[in-house]
Amino acid sequence: MKAPPPNILFFLTDNQRNDLLGCAGNPIIKTPNIDRLAASGVRFENAFCTSPICAASRASYLTGTSEKRHRFTFLTSPLQSAYTDISYPATLKMAGYRTGLIGKFGIATNGIVPSLQDEDAVEKMFDVFDNYEHWTEEGYEIRQPDGSVRHLTDITGDKTINFLRTHQSDHPGQPFCLSVSFNAPHAQDNDPRCYIWPATEDHLYAETQIPEPFNAHPDFFRQLPKFLRETESRVRWQKRYATSEDYQRNMRGLYRMVSGVDRNIGRILGTMDQLSLSNNTVIIFASDHGMYYGDRGLSDCWQLNEQSIRIPLIILDPRADENNRGLIREELALNIDIAPTILELANLNVSDKMQGKSLVPLLEKKKVDWRKAFFCEHRFHRADIPKSEGVRTQRWKYIRYYEQQPVYEELYDLRNDPHESFNLAGDHRFSNHLKRLRRRCDKMSAECA
């Protein structure tokens, strides 16, 4: 008898770097429920987004294509129907899945309303579409009808639990794919508190001293080129991390927001157990991109350094045997791999337009021939956020700010310099490496387009 197709529950957080998990080796942050997913599933040690900005990365998650292919980020034309038509929710819905999104859709050129070429795209992709963000007057603190205040992260947990219960009662036997997109731990930039967490997490990290970020000494920042010293990333550093007191306060707030997400994931997992859904529901946990938390004297994302492009990624398939649980894979996994992974898990065909590769072969303890490099890019048109593109291999990183005159290049040996402290682009001893990666970037850029 053919096994029923699995349910799929895809958790996506906002601006959460790869190292903000206990299972990733962070000795301070408390994420027991996400750690439990990793202990029972597969954690990808080297997972990356290909564009470190919300709009472009979320379009890549949806469609399995890179920014240079789908051409969507903030202030661009709407995402083309050629890509929403092949998206994982559209494909799943057409195949009989009940599909839903709760939280931040994020594919919007300016604001919250989706920017999609096809006015019927949302209906083609989702049976349930509950799109909301923290960019409102209330922010994360939502006034309830009874006058109380509930945090947006808890509301997202509530709505997810309601979806699961309603699905079980009203749609028995129909598989579902639910995308749960937490707004946390994104900072509230229009609020001086910056990081606003649920009251349940008030007690956490109160006496904890968060370690200083890498390359945070003023001397490191001063040696950056002028155009990087004058970016929006530095403006946001001034707001969040300019003093040690601000750094500790905001990092504790950030950690509390992550722990709030983890607590709600625990609530959702408990509901799945109660509804007997756990044994046939694949769970994916990831974030849209990484962040500078004061590293390099910067804040936010946008540049192509490791802090911005590294993301957490965990996949738990409850149908896997014991030998394939608790695995840590070292291969280069990308956000564009998630859509084809979801479709293969559902036993559906993957469009040839998708550039990502299904991660399903990596969910088992076996050797797999895999990519050795990937192309990354940032193309948001804004004067104080410079555009860049690059190549990341297993050992080397090449970045070029291609609109600077002259073009500004960076080259890092990640094996010997994992924090990208020493730019080797101007060192004649590495000129052959620079030329080789420059050519590779040209080639991969053309292929992505």
Explain the overall architecture:
The chain starts with 6 loop residues before the first strand and ends with a helix. The strands form four sheets. The chain has an eight-stranded mixed beta sheet, sandwiched between helices. It has a four-stranded antiparallel beta sheet with strand order 13-14-15-16, covered by helices on one side. A two-stranded antiparallel ribbon has the order 5-6. The relative contact order is 0.18. It is α/β, with parallel strands linked by helices and 449 residues long. The model has no long low-confidence stretch (mean pLDDT 97). The chain contains 14 helices and 16 strands. The protein has two domains: 7-369, Alkaline Phosphatase, subunit A (3-Layer(aba) Sandwich); 387-449, Arylsulfatase, C-terminal domain (2-Layer Sandwich), CATH 3.30.1120.10.
Q: What is the strand and helix layout of this fold?
A:
Layout: E1 7-13, H1 32-40, E2 42-48, H2 54-63, H3 67-70, H4 81-84, H5 88-94, E3 98-103, H6 121-125, E4 128-131, E5 141-143, E6 149-151, H7 152-170, E7 176-181, H8 218-222, H9 226-229, H10 232-240, H11 244-274, E8 281-287, E9 292-293, E10 299-300, H12 306-309, E11 313-316, E12 327-334, H13 338-345, E13 373-378, E14 388-393, E15 396-401, E16 408-413, H14 431-448
Parallel strand pairs: 1-7, 1-8, 2-12, 3-4, 3-7
Antiparallel strand pairs: 2-11, 5-6, 8-11, 9-10, 13-14, 14-15, 15-16
Helix pairs in contact: 7-11
